[in-house]
Amino acid sequence: MKFFRRPLAYIVFSSEYLIGVSTYGDHSSFDIYKYKRIRDKLISEKLIKAKNILYPKPCSYMDIKKVHLPAYIRKIQDPIYVNSALKVEINSMWDNTVLEYYRAVCGGTILAARQVLKLGKPVFNLGGGFHHAQPDKAEGFCLLNDVAIAVKILTSKGYIKKTLIIDLDYHQGNGNTLIFKDNPDVFTFSIHADHWVTLESESNQDILIPSDITDAEYLELVKDRLESILLKFTPDIIFFIAGSDPYIEDALADMQISRETMLKRNMYVLSRAISGKIPIVILPGGGYGEKSWEIYYDFISASLNKKSYDENK
């Protein structure tokens, strides 16, 4: 395939994404190497070159303080607390590599958000979408809320005013909904089969769906609700948490969405952002098991391939 000099999208990745997250219990099916597999296959298929991958720095504690409370920040520097909160294995009581993993991925989302405004192309972070993390606690394998931190940074610097968070993970994006419930300039839109919390807000659309929803019903719902939101809310940027766990072969979730429909869903959201000239940052969110990486790879691959993009949008 012909390589485009200026890629149709950019990738954010760091080797630090691979450190310190050995899970057990409910999270034992999370494969931290899937994002490396995606990067390696994109390069081997000549869809992207190494020079077009963006390499982030870990987010600073000043960045983290924009969302998380000081008492909580002190807690997450204790590996024993992290072990208990996230069910991750630690090498010793002084081992902070798990925190460093989250700082690295959070830094990737911040970089993606900054670069999408600069480059004018979609940017995929090969990690992130930690949508359960709240100002004062970790939840659901989410220690730092990378999206909320990135939104706060861009807003504080005056780069953007209005943000749309599209969350199509199997699980509700309850952390973002809570953080931005009183902010009319951030619209949180979540379609999910697993409901964590109910919060009423004019700038929130929270849709609980049955796990046995069909491909056609699911895709139509995504399209219909997104169109209605974009008619009344005009964002300066979109953060899309493209969770792969609605996929029928996900190891933990119980939805029945096909691989083909997952790609159609993702490409529809991307095409709406592009047609509306809205910068879009894309994050993988949840996804479990040995086949999970294929869903996010399909999405990035199609986004980098003009013919595939036209077929799937």
Inertia-based shape: globular
The CATH fourth-level homologous superfamily: Histone deacetylase domain
User: What about the largest sheet?
Assistant: 8 strands, parallel
Q: What is the domain total for the residues?
A: 1
Low-confidence segments: 23-27
Q: Helix coverage percent of residues?
A: 25-40%
CATH class: Alpha Beta
Distance between the termini: 20 Å
Tally of helical segments: 11
**What proportion of the residues form beta strands (DSSP E)?**
5-15%
| DSSP strand count | 10
**Overall residue-averaged pLDDT value:** 90
Question: Mind telling me the C-alpha Rg?
Answer: 18 Å
Architecture, according to CATH? 3-Layer(aba) Sandwich
**What is the name of the CATH topology?**
Arginase, Chain A
Query: What strand order characterises the main sheet?
Result: 3-1-5-10-9-6-7-8
> Which class do the helix and strand fractions yield?
alpha/beta
Q: Write the H/E string, N to C.
A: EEHEHHHEHEHEHEEHEHEHH
Quick rundown:
This protein is 40% helix and 12% strand. The chain has 313 residues and is α/β, with parallel strands linked by helices.
